[in-house]
Write a structure and sequence with these properties.
Layout: H1 9-18, H2 21-35, H3 48-62, H4 68-87, H5 92-98, H6 106-131, H7 138-153, H8 179-196, H9 208-231, E1 239-249, H10 254-258, H11 262-274, E2 284-286, H12 300-309, E3 315-325, E4 331-343, E5 346-354, H13 368-373, H14 377-380, E6 393-395, E7 398-405, H15 412-416, E8 424-430, H16 439-454, E9 458-463, E10 467-470, E11 478-480, E12 486-493, H17 500-504, H18 507-523, H19 525-535
Parallel strand pairs: 1-2, 2-3, 7-8, 8-9
Antiparallel strand pairs: 1-12, 3-4, 4-5, 6-7, 9-10, 10-11
Length: 536
């Protein structure tokens, strides 16, 4: 044995695979937490190469245990728990911004959500332990199992497809263009395969068959980059004539908005910015979600002040909170987009959309009965009612638009559900809840993928988030940073022809996964039958 043999890659792999107890738990949790660096705003995607290797090696070790599926599940769960806890820690700021009385919920709500999401990674690793063959090409089974469970995470129980593996690639870059064919779930599959493939090359002796998956992964990465680079060379479709949008971006924190005289502060700030020079050349004014902390449609004074500005028949598109009084005097609350047209200073509602997908703990409260029992009844009652679903809105003076309120923009299937095909997307959000954390940066990166998948441009108005213009390729020629403040007049880009994903959706993703899974089940049918008999 040479002096440094203990540090050889083969020894390192063997040592990690054989780890157990608290050391194994710590290794997996830390590896998962480090994996979050691959997401925005860092985009350190190379970190996934060693961290996914650790996950693969440890789950391979679980397959030699007395209870391999259970052991594999917990290893995947521990890795996922570290990943989601580190990647979504910023959710704690929403509780802090609600008030000091809600801070005690942070140690329960944030880890509970991370644990729920991590359970999908546990299920993926249990499936891998059941299906994977012994050859080096088991990395394909690893990638397929994890990609399938990521799809399930984005759809079951309302779904929360946050920080999918595909989002390690900055939207608008060359590799992100793959989503125009395979969607974000298909790109997640390819990302996992490419980045985990070097793990099987590590061993005491370098052999060609060990290196083959890594070579294939490198070839796939090169193909993805080349395809994306060529797509980004397509000609610019231009802008819509006669449409001039004003994005009003006010740097108001949530604490200021909800503080003393916060409603007046927010109203005066938005009115002042809206009235910036050049308003007479603007056709549509865009305010973000929750711009004013009032029920704006019930506030005649605010509506009148807005009307004094809009002397040229402009249209205001603003996020609002609204309430509806029921027959039994019960109130129903909605998070909405209101489209107001001012003619002669008088407002008329020409469009209204109620948010359909409600954010957990923000607009819908999971386990509200339990929270009421332990002393958080007021918090448990803070629930909105979902709208009727996505739809395409006809706008005066502009092409048809599909509204996306806040995190509705992270759901690929939701965006595709709008029919007929709109000409653009309008994403309005209130990212002020999450302070100066990675949350708003992750949000805008994920939302930009919807433009890549659909070929539709997007205008984004986000309070204390990243606002601006996103073209049909996911690029952001106009990006307004969270701390900026002003009125930004922009043109509306035109859409491009619907890409393959906009037509087929996730069918290509499922065809590839189905073929791989069917082949593996046939190859290992005796093992699968054994476990099915045990379950029965």
């Amino acid at each position: 044995m040479t002096r440094h043999a203990w540090y050889s890659p083969g020894r390192l792999r063997t040592g990690i695979a054989a780890a157990s107890g608290w050391r194994l738990a710590l290794i997996l949790f830390v590896a998962g937490a480090l994996s979050a660096l691959a997401m925005a705003p860092v985009f350190a995607w190379p970190v996934l190469i060693p961290t996914l290797a650790i996950l693969l090696w440890t789950v391979d070790g679980a397959r030699r245990r007395a209870l391999p599926l259970r052991s594999a599940f917990w290893r995947g769960f521990l890795f996922g728990f570290g990943y989601f806890l580190a990647g979504m820690f910023w959710l704690a700021y929403a509780f802090i911004n609600r008030g000091a009385e809600y801070i005690p919920l942070i140690p329960f709500a944030v880890p509970a959500l991370a644990a729920l999401l991590a359970a999908f990674w546990g299920g993926a690793m249990a499936s891998y332990a059941l299906l994977a063959q012994r050859s080096e090409w088991r990395v394909l089974v690893f990638a397929v199992c994890l990609a399938v469970f990521e799809w399930l995470r984005g759809h079951l129980f309302g779904g929360l497809p946050w920080n999918l593996p595909a989002y390690a690639w900055p939207a608008g870059g060359a590799i992100s263009q793959t989503a125009s064919w395979f969607g974000v779930y298909g790109l997640s599959l390819l990302t996992l395969l490419v980045l985990v493939s070097p793990a099987v090359a590590v061993g005491p002796v370098l052999r060609l068959k060990r290196v083959m998956p890594a070579m294939a992964g490198a070839a796939i990465l090169l193909i993805l980059f080349s395809f994306g680079a060529l797509r980004l060379q397509e000609p610019d479709p231009g802008v819509e004539p006669g449409v001039r949008l004003r994005i009003v971006h006010a740097s108001i924190t949530q604490a200021e908005k909800w503080g003393r005289d916060g409603a007046l502060l927010a109203r005066d700030r938005y009115l002042g910015l809206t009235a910036a020079p050049g308003l007479d050349e603007v056709t549509h004014v865009l305010w973000p979600e929750g711009a004013l902390p009032i029920y704006m449609l019930e506030d005649g004074a605010s509506l009148s002040l807005i009307g004094e500005l809009f002397a040229h028949d402009q249209i205001l598109m603003s996020g609002i909170s609204r309430r509806v009084l029921g027959p039994d005097d019960d109130e129903t609350y909605y998070n909405s987009l209101a489209v107001l047209r001012y003619q002669g200073g008088a407002p008329r509602i020409v469009g209204l959309y109620d948010k359909t997908l409600l954010a957990p703990f923000g607009e819908s409260i999971p386990l509200s009965g339990l929270l009421s029992m332990i002393g958080f009844a007021d918090f448990a009652r803070l629930q909105y009612t979902p709208g009727d679903g996505p739809f395409v809105m006809d706008l005066p003076g502009a092409p048809p638009v599909m509204p996306l309120i806040c995190y509705e923009g992270i759901f690929p299937g939701f965006v595709r559900a709008g029919t007929p095909r709109p000409s653009w997307l309008f994403n309005l959000s209130n990212d002020a809840w999450f302070g100066e954390t990675s949350g708003p940066q992750q949000h805008v990166n994920q939302t930009r993928y919807r433009s890549i998948e659909t070929g539709l441009p997007m205008i984004r108005s986000a309070s204390r988030g990243v606002s601006g213009v996103i073209d049909a390729f996911g690029r952001m020629p106009v990006a307004i940073l969270p701390a900026a403040e002003g009125a930004y007049d922009v043109d509306l880009p035109r859409p491009i022809a619907a890409p393959l994903y906009a037509v087929w959706g996730d069918w290509l993703f499922w065809i590839v996964n189905g073929l791989v899974i069917a082949g593996i089940i046939f190859q290992r049918r005796k093992v699968v039958e054994k476990y099915l008999k045990f379950i029965r």
